[in-house]
Amino acid sequence: MEGFIFAISAYVIWGFLPIYMKAMSHISPIEIVAHRIIWSVPIAGFVLIMLGRFKELASVIRNPRLVLMSFVTATLISINWGIYVWAMTSGHALDAALGYFVNPLFSIFLGAVLLKEHLNRAQLIAILIVVCAVSFLSWETGNLPWIPLGITLSWGTYAFLKKSLPMGPNQGFFLEVLLLSPIAFYYVITLEKKGFGHFYDTSYVNPLLLIGTGLATALPMMLYVNGAKLLRLSTIGILQYLVPTMIFIIAIFIFKEDFGTSKLIVFSMIWFALIIYSFGVKISRE
Fold it and tell me: What pTM, to 2 d.p., does this model score?
């Protein structure tokens, strides 16, 4: 039950996060991501101290290979955050939702290609439908759908690499934001010196919003990784659809984004692919 509460809490926070990001539409996505990194460091560090696992981080830092791999995963998650924030603040929340709907099937594809995991017929059909959906969207718009593809590739690859890192999820997240923090600090300080930053605004709203990104970033991430440890993979697999569903609803009914025929077709194909995949998983277990 504890793991379920952790996971649900994380997904609900992630689901409502678009509204918070939309409130910062007047701030550049890069500045928002930089503050997400900076303010996540003290929160993640505090959690490690409270759990009594801060000392375990020392052995990880002494391993150059683990540090390098952590920097790679940190880069991937920062790219994911950047695309996500841009999508939310520029009227493309539906594209972000599409990316998170596709992501589970991309993870299956990675497992088949890189880990030689066996795919059943339902999984193959589901992946082919996703490829057709992305191809149709590209043909319809005349461009590659870089937002859903970027979110899918960055998050899927991040999750794949995280599995191979021999360290606790809390330590891993803290190390990632710690490694990125010098770059984030430099960017924010440079921005403020040039007069383009929003942290030292006379209004208290922008500074509070930027500081809050740390809690909005670290809290659900750490709730998720701890919940995932206590739940079955199948449960996590079902729950993960909660986030793109909430983003989809918010994009249409709150952000009033356009949901034309082409997007209806694409989303219908993705949902159909997920139904086929879920049905295939159920059959394979029986």
Answer: 0.90
